[in-house]
From TrEMBL:
This is Cation transporter. GO terms for cellular component: membrane. The chain crosses the membrane at residues 14-32, 39-58, 70-90, 111-128. GO terms for molecular function: monoatomic cation transmembrane transporter activity. Residues 44-147 form the Cation efflux protein transmembrane domain. It holds the Pfam family Cation_efflux. It comes from Corynebacterium amycolatum. Keywords: Membrane, Transmembrane, Transmembrane helix. Its main location: membrane. It is found in: Membrane. It is a multi-pass membrane protein.
Length: 168
């Protein structure tokens, strides 16, 4: 999304760092603890969804379009870096563990977000409006929300102790 890119970039780097730290730390844990760490991973994947939805709402209110060249160039640079990471993690995409699958989904989502942001930047060149950025933000939010839900549900399925009481 086209909000303060420097700040957003720092937050995203922090989120990726926390995901990697969680996974690397949890690899040495017991199976039950790794499953519980997957719930935390789902929360970390949810962060970009919340940020994207919040920014989209702000853009709807403010109507401020992003600067298309900055948006596009930033998306290209981030996409190259995230694509390399996603390719390195590709063998985890069908992993049985929610923790390892979650790492793949987070990397994949970053690449998809970069592609969508690039598209918004190109469209904004021809149609100077906040709406391409808003639509892309909503799509990015939905992609990350779906991935977080998938990791959470897989973690719950791996550990029956994490099942919610359906009688409430």
């Amino acid at each position: 999304m086209g909000f303060d890119g420097t700040r957003a970039g720092r937050y995203d780097v922090l989120r990726v760092y926390l995901i990697n730290l969680l996974v690397l730390t949890a690899l040495g844990w017991s199976l039950a603890s790794r499953r519980k760490a997957s719930i935390g991973l789902a929360g970390l994947i949810l962060i970009p969804a919340i940020a994207a939805f919040g920014t989209a709402i702000w853009k709807m209110i403010s109507g401020e379009p992003p600067e298309p060249l900055t948006l596009s160039v930033t998306a290209i640079i981030a996409m190259v870096i995230n694509l390399v990471c996603a390719i390195l993690l590709m063998n985890l995409r069908k992993a049985d563990s929610a923790l390892t699958r979650g790492v793949w989904l987070a990397a994949r989502n970053d690449v998809l977000a970069n592609l969508l942001i690039l598209a918004a930047g190109v469209v904004t060149v021809f149609w100077f409006s906040a709406w391409p950025d808003i639509v892309v933000g909503l799509v990015i939010g939905a992609i990350n929300l779906t991935a977080a839900k998938e990791v959470y549900e897989q973690a719950r399925a791996e550990d029956p102790e994490l099942e919610m009481d359906d009688d409430d």
